[in-house]
Amino acid sequence: MSPSVVERLAELGIELPDAPSAVGAYVPTVRAGALLFTSGQIATTGQGLLATGVVGVDVELETARACARQCLLNVLAQVHAAIGALDRIQRVIKLTVFVASAPGFTNQSAIADSASDLLASILGERGAHARSSLGVAALPLGSPVEIEAIFEVEAA
Fold it and tell me: According to CATH, what is the number of the domain 5-153?
């Protein structure tokens, strides 16, 4: 029997953060049948943003990759808050990764890979997903990365 998501997080030395509060006029998740949509999550921790700025100018690639991992953990925290247990995730449908990018920066997929790889480490084959990675001019509060996701979850 495979380990629970909580056990897998512990094996990886990861503590799931509290679900961040919304920073605008929206809700963190919306459920439609078996689908759970998350609002975009930025790279916040209990101490604030991991970094601010634009990748390729203010933010190095490895810092942006760490930001993507934090965004993913915040996404999972929102899912946990919405459905009560991450083991109720049937599969990840899609990630959309936004990267505040300098003109000419074209390595958004390497940043998104850090979130995708972490998701696979945590959820195994349930974590395989479709993905888009986009370069944008700026993101909320100056975060270098933002991630939104769609999950298939067990019935309520």
Answer: 3.30.1330.40
Report strand pairing: 29-32 vs 130-136.
unpaired
- ∠ CA 61-65-71, nearest 5°, is 140
> Each residue of 93-104: pLDDT tens digit?
999 999 999 999
Percentage of residues of the chain with pLDDT beyond 70 = 99
User: CB–CB of 156/122 below 8 Å?
Assistant: no
pLDDT in tens, 110-135: 999 999 999 999 999 999 999 999 99
Give the C-alpha distances (Å, rounded to integers) separating 107 from 44, 77, 131, 140, 147.
22, 27, 14, 20, 16
- 3-state SS assignment for residue 127: helix
CA distance 114 to 137: 21
Reference 5, options 99, 126, 105; nearest CA is: 126
Q: How far is residue 75's CA from residue 147's CA, in Å, rounded to a whole number?
A: 7
Sites in the chain below the pLDDT cut of 50: none
